[in-house]
Amino acid sequence: MADTMTPQQKIALICENLQEVLKPEIMEDIIVKQNRPFSIYWGTATTGRPHCGYFVPMVKIAHFLRAGCRVKILLADIHGFLDNLKAPIELVKFRAEYYRFVVVSLLKAINVPIDLLEFSLGSSHQLSEKYTMDIFRLSTLVTEHDAKKAGAEVVKQVANAPLSGLIYPLMQALDEEYLGVDAQFGGVDQRKIFTFAIEQLPRVGYKERVHLMNSMVPGLAGGKMSASDPDSKIDLLDTPEVLKKKLKKAYAVPKEIEGNGIVSFVEYVLLPVSALKTGGKGRFVVERREGEGEALVYENIETLKEDYRADKLTPQLLKSGVANALLEILEPIRADFQASPAWQEIEQKAYPAPEVKKKEKKAKDKGNKHPGVTKGVESQPDGHVEGKQKNEVNLGSSAEQAMQNLDIATNKI
Asked: Using CA atoms, how far apart are residues 172 and 39, in angstroms rounded to an integer?
């Protein structure tokens, strides 16, 4: 397909549905004047289980490949460990392998050839002597304030944060040089790291790159879709029953488009995926029950938004249509997983089931032979008592004292 496209058509496809492009003039120079393949990397920290939000970058990676770009996918294992221990060091290797299985299956499911796709493991270059020296060089130039600001939208923010969160953006910037690419692609939440890379890499003798940013799709509960929040996302391997249940509870205010993750998912995933699979225009179909009219068919997002604002397309109808379309897309991914013992084995190693702690049996308090005083005293072998409340039960050390404490007068016997 790329062979039949003009340079301007390639640039248009690369930029389609992106929210922002930094340094587009560099891309134009490479594609138009230098007339060579444009190289891009997309990185993902191998932490929680990949979810349906990953379709958003996969759609763009499909566009890059169709435009003749060379695409590298960085499985950032060390980044996952650095980001406040989101991925324990013992598990990052297995999680990187799990992510590779997922990405390949995702791209296959949306009909994308992957012969121009290359995978790279972060630790394969990030542990080298030269890379380490470059980290040291950057660390002498970058202030704590700038490093913290760069990672503010990406690195988990906690009180008394570990130093690793400051190293994270330095490494992400350097990866552009060590992967030998012309551009880095990511969500708009990466913007501060991208501008950081543009500012800092020339200070250690490396060139500026292009930065491509897609919009962030809101989660099911509103806000950012997160791998660490099970209520905000749909796992790629969720069963149909779980998927429908999550969508049923999803945040979707009638007639409101802003912050509506379901509408955004149609815009940035379902319509583009449909176009990729058919090679033509995307289509999103919402079936209606008998007596409610014919199915609603959408070939562009603006018509869908108009119908949603007018309440012709209700939240219930929208959720039903999304569930049906998503189940169709996910079916081959689940089939790949079920047919691959290797993928299943890696899943168990990457995300082991949490250990169930057995409740410790507490020793029963059998009492202390002093009715009415069950706490604060303890009987000793010789018969006397010890504890905070011993004065309340102590009868003395002699018979006379005991008689007095019991208020028994010998002359009344």
From this structure: 17
CB-based burial label for 251 (10 Å; 0-12, 13-18, 19+): middle
Q: Output the DSSP codes for 195-239.
A: HHHHHHGGGGT----EEEEEPPPBPTTSSB--TT-GGG--BTT--
pTM: 0.80
pLDDT, block means (10 residues), the chain with 413 residues = 89 95 98 96 92 92 94 92 72 92 92 86 95 97 94 78 87 97 96 97 97 88 58 85 92 91 93 89 92 92 97 95 95 96 95 76 59 55 59 54 52 46
Identify whether the C-beta of residue 69 lies closer than 8 Å to the C-beta of residue 116: yes
Indicate the DSSP class of residue 362: P
Check if the beta carbon of residue 38 is closer than 8 Å to that of residue 70.
Answer: yes
* DSSP β-ladder status, 183-187 and 210-214: parallel
- Burial code of 26-38, b = ≥16 C-beta within 10 A, e = fewer? bbbebbeeeeebb
